[in-house]
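Re: the request from the purification team.
They wanted to know what the chain is likely to look like in 3D before they choose a buffer screen. I agreed to run a prediction and write the result into the notebook, where they can find it.
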Amino acid sequence: MKRIPSGYCGSILWKSIATRSFSRWRLRLWTQVLVAALLVSAAQAQSPKQLWVLQEPDEIVGYDVTTFAARRTLKVPRRVLEHPEYLSINAKGQMVFLPPQGAQWGGGEMASAADRMWFWDGRQAQERKLQETETLGGSAGKPTVVETARQWFLSVGGESLFWFANRFETVTDESGPERSVRSTARVWRTDLAGGRPETITNLSSSGWCGCATGVCSETCPEWSFWAPDGVVGDFFLATRFTPGQLGATYHESFLYQRSGGTWQAKKLPQPVLMPLTASEKGEALVAAVPDGGCCGWENESSDQTLLLRNGTVTVLYDESDRYDNRNYDVSFYTADAHLAAGNAMLAYTVVSTARAGSQIRLSCDGKENAEELARVRKAIAELPAVEVVQLGIQPRSATVIRHAMLVGWVSDREILVAQDGRLAVYDIRGSKRKETTIRVRSAADAFLR
C-alpha cells in the first residue's frame, strides 16, 4: 500500500480550496465584465447616433452627439430651410422633404417647387410629384376627375420607402362644382428607387359620397397617415377623417403593426387627432387634442395631451386645468413630444399662441378678469418651456426647463433642447450639463436620430 507523504493531504486540501476560491473569484470578475459590457452596449443602443442641424443658407450638418463636433455637411434645397417642419430624417441619414398637399407659398423656390417632394437616399438626391391628376370621360356631360395624392415615409432600416396614397374619383358639373366622390387609399412599400412594390393594405370609404356643399372635402371622408418623425418602423397609424369647412371631424384610427412579414390592423378606442410620438411598436401613443377654435379665435376649448396605452386613455396635460384661461383668447398647448428609451419618461414643449408683451383680447364669450389676465401674462412670459413627465400609474411632472424647446433625448437621463439660439444638454432634474456652440433658429432646425 502506497503511503502518502506527511503534509501532502493538507497541501492537496489547500490547493483544492485555493483553486475553488480562484474559480469563484474569476467567475465573479467575468460576470462583472460581462454586465459592464452589456450596460455599455445597452447605453450605446439607446443613445441617438446622429444629430443633424440645418444651417443657413442651404446646408445641413451632421454632428457627433458625444463631442458635438461636425462630421458631415450636405447641400439641401433652400425650401428645406424655409420650412424645416416638413423634413424627416432617419437614423441612416436619409431625408425626405414633404410639403403638405395643396399648400400655397408666397414666392421663392417654394412657389415653383411646392408640388414636389425632395428625397436624399444617402448618396444622391431626387424629386417627385406629390399629386397626379387625370380627367376621364363621364356620363351625361359630367366629367370625372381622378386625383392621386401621395406621401413618402422613410424606413427605420433605410432599405425601403413606404408610400401612402389617397385616390379621389370625383364627378363634377361643367360649371365647376363637385357632385360626388369615391375615395380609396393604398399603402405599399418599395425599394429606394421605387421598384419591387409590396402592398401592405388597401383602405376604402363607404362608396360614393355626395358633395353637399359643392366641395367634396367639406363633407366626405378620406384617410391620413402618420409615423413618428415621418419614419416607419414596426407600425404606422391610419385615421379616417372629414376635412370639413371650418374644422376636421375624426371618425376612427387604426394601428397597423408588423408581425414578421405581415401587418395586422387594430382599431384604437378613439380616433387620434394629432399624434405626437409613440413607442417602437405603437402600444404607447401620445397625441394632442387641439383647440376647437375657428374663424379667427384661438381659445374656444381646452387643449389636451393624451397617452393611449393598453386600451386606456390618460390625460397628461389639460390647458384649462393648468392655466384656467377661459376668458382670454390665448391657447397653451404641447407642440411636440418624445419618449425616452424604455417609455418610462416623456418630454414635451409647452407653447402659447401669444407672445410676451402682446395685446391679449377676450375670448369669444370671455369676461374681464384682472387676476386671470395677470396669470395668463405671467405664463406667456415663461414660455416656451420643456417639461419632463414620469409615466407611472399616476403620471407626474418631474422637471420644467423654461425658455427652451425640445429637440430629443440624448440618453434616457439627458435631453437636448434649443435655448437662447443654441443647443444645450439638460439632465432630467433640470440641470444644464452642457451648452454647445451649435446655433439654431429654433428646435425645428435640429434632428436627433
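For the purification team: The CA atoms of residues 40 and 46 lie 10 Å apart.
Please add any questions underneath this entry.
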